[in-house]
């Protein structure tokens, strides 16, 4: 039944030594958003035990939603490098989960969540502040910058958290992601068409389509998650991170 569990598998061009993978989960071992020696030792023990792939716990990509790990600037790169150096001799692969809490998490300063619409989550119960066009561009750039830091830190890939009602899922949700067209002053207009009408609309007519996240297609889990095909705003090459529409 499990004869293939210990055999190699590939994710795109990346080989994983076996099919034992540890999904992202909170360890509460980070401090001030940074990787600690305790966190490195925790993952090293699992690597020495034979795990093929570990996905690190969710790292916030934008200051409006932060958990224990914070991939907000280049100060996290040194921690990634120390972790990658410790794990490399074991052969285990490391991915980082990239995350934004959307309408579920209040902002760190206690203000309402930033989200695709004003529809509150059942968990927070607070009407979010809808993204402005400027904030959407900022968030898109934040995902790309976070992915580049993961790469610079020597990890093997990223996973975009697109479930559990967080931002990447709610932006696509018929129930919560009622984003529409952008009009004057950078404001986002709500798409209030009936749910079934929005679901049945041809792709070319839908008002808000999944972004395509590209940081090396062989190093990505959950690749489609929001509104535009992703390309790097500075290089424009469409290969490393997030930016405008194609």
Oligomer: single chain
**Overall pLDDT level:** 77
How many strands, which pairing sense, and closed or not: the largest β-sheet?
6 strands, parallel
Unreliable stretches, pLDDT < 50, 5 or more residues? 180-190, 202-246
Structural class: alpha/beta
Number of helices: 5
Q: Could you estimate the helical fraction of the residues in percent?
A: 10-25%
How many beta-strand segments?
Answer: 14
- Straight-line N-to-C gap: 45 Å
What is the global morphology?
globular
- Rg, nearest Å: 19 Å
Helix and strand run: EEEHEEHEEEHEHEEHEEE
Classify the beta-strand content into a percent band: 15-25%
What would you say this structure looks like, in words?
It contains five helices and 14 strands. Strands 3, 4, 5, 6, 9 and 13 form a six-stranded parallel β-sheet that branches. Strand 10 and strand 11 form a beta hairpin. The longest helix has 20 residues, at 133-152. Mean pLDDT is 77; it is low at 180-190 and 202-246. It has 246 residues and is of the alpha/beta class.
